[in-house]
Design a protein that fits this description.
- The complex is a heterodimer of chains A (417) and B (255).
- Chain A is α+β, with helices and mostly antiparallel strands and 417 residues long.
- Chain A has 14 helices and ten strands.
- Chain A starts with a helix and ends with a helix.
- In chain B, 40% of the residues lie in helices and 25% in strands.
- Classes of the chains: A alpha+beta (417), B alpha/beta (255).
- Chains A and B meet through α1, α11, α12 and α14 of A and α2 and α3 of B.
Amino acid sequence: MVRTLMIIPRLTVQTVFLALGQIWANKVRSMLTTLGIIIGVASIIAVVAALTGLRASVLSEFEKFGARKVFIDGRVPRELRNRINFRDVQLTLAELDAVEEHCPSIEKLTPMMMMAKSAEAGDTKLDGVQTTGIWPTWHDIEGRAVLIGRPFNEIDERERRDVCLVNEKLIEDLGLDRDPTTQTIRLSDRVFTIVGVVETVTFNIFGSGESNAEIFIPLATAMRLNPNGWINFAWAQMRRPDQAQDAIAEISTVMRKVRGLEGATPNTFEVRVIQQFIDGFNRVAGAVTAGAGGVVGISLLVGGIGIMNIMLVSVSERTREIGLRKAVGARPSVVLLQFLVEAVTLCLVGGAVGIALGQLMVLGIRNIPGADLGRAVAPAWVIVLSVGFSAATGIVFGMFPALKAARLDPIEALRHE
Amino acid sequence: MTIEIHQLEKIYRVGEERVHALRGVDLVIQRNEFVAIMGASGSGKSTLMNVLGCLDSPTRGRYVLNGRATHKMGAAALARVRNEEIGFVFQSFELLPRASALKNVMLPLIYSRFNWLEARKRAKRALERVGLADRIGHRPNQLSGGQRQRVAIARALVNTPSILLADEPTGNLDTATTREIIELFRQLHAEGQTIVMVTHEEEVADAALRIVRLRDGMVTSDHPTRRDPTHAAFLQNAARMAAEAAGEALPAGAE
């Protein structure tokens, strides 16, 4: 027993070199044999790397979006679609006050009242400019920098002042001064004074990659400007990013109470946190990974059958050699080990070529124009997994030929032509 | 005592038929003997050789090698006995074509306790013993038939076996090379090596000191070479025929 244990490492090293020599001597044959493994490993590396890159860019978009943000809006549940109108479920200021007051995990919130208005400055007129009524808390929640001038304050809201914030895109489109503060624009024939400029943001993934002209006005002003309008939705901000579950539960409870929803009545509103978007993305990514895993499994199966075939050929070609090895004292277990090591070596060489090919594909993926996959990289676990799967394929599919070799009768083997 | 065989029987099953290859062979071979085993094909000499080499187990009977009862051993134990006690020389050399002479000779040591350096040293020494010290890097296809068989003999000797078993070692060689190999066997015997050789050539058997003849799975005669009547008759006959050939050739050459 001890003797065998002493032999194994030395024999393994020798067998690995022997197998490498055989592979080198039969380059084309080995290449074709391991093609299944090469393709399998290369594709899993490419797919996982692409997903990693996609995840990196999506998550950074989400981060820009804000990890503490909670989205609240009125929504007609499917069951009640015939009975109530969407106007009936829109958020009211009273409801939002209640949420702010009774939800400990919520730090602040702002209603968002959105409309399209015509904006005029001098002779230039711009139709359909996105105009949003907000509370001053919007600045803290959205975190968009005020580049020039000042943010909104409580007085703007309380006094329903006709003041506005604009973004750089609007300055450009309306041909205003680089510093437009104290200039005025006309919205629906009312004159608004520009008090500040906020930065323009673009969302690569959720938007078209373009930025729009935007105007922000105090919510109270917006409600007066558009008496028949409604609050489209509200952004709330949690105290800590890990309070998502608490926030959803608290807001739901408060909203149901305020709206008098009891028992099994479905929610007539919706509360969503950024984590849910991330989870959704992760589910999709997981499904894609699983699908790719299935493809890889099939390639490895095909590759394994190729390995088994070539090892059977090898055992048959080298029957006399096996007979000789047994005659000079190789035990059946040692012959088994030798052929298993050979199969595993063949698979690992295939795996290594697959990894190299996969990395080349990753380089290609990174440079696909417009795909935003610059951060595509094969993580260490997928490389370790590839090596492991290659070795496992060698062991599983090399076992039958190796057993065949181990069971050969040395006399018969030496007589083999 | 080296080899002790008692009432050895071997029965093969070929389909429905039972082939009685050995029918009660008794044989004792001492240390440093040089024995030739002879017999027609089907006499059981190859089977006896396989049993002596622990490649095959007897159906009945005892085979004790250096005091160890090999007829009771399993496959792994037999493999170890082959590795440590027996050196095989085959008719068709059985060298690994892609490996150098040195690598070929090192092969049995892969399966034994020696480390690489020690194995290399031993293999070199074995190649020196067979007169191939200057050919260690050559592959079999770069060597002549006689040199190949010398490599095979070196491989058989490398683990200092108690018996060198040669199965028709000159079967694939021409007359001159046959003489070389026989001379090598004599030399090894003189150095103390026990040799058992299967052959059907009387000239080759002449190199041995003892001839064991088999027929139908039984020992029919067991004599020292010079006292074996069959062998003596053969040698006389051969000498007469050689003289006649020389006599006929001589006048032809004189004309």
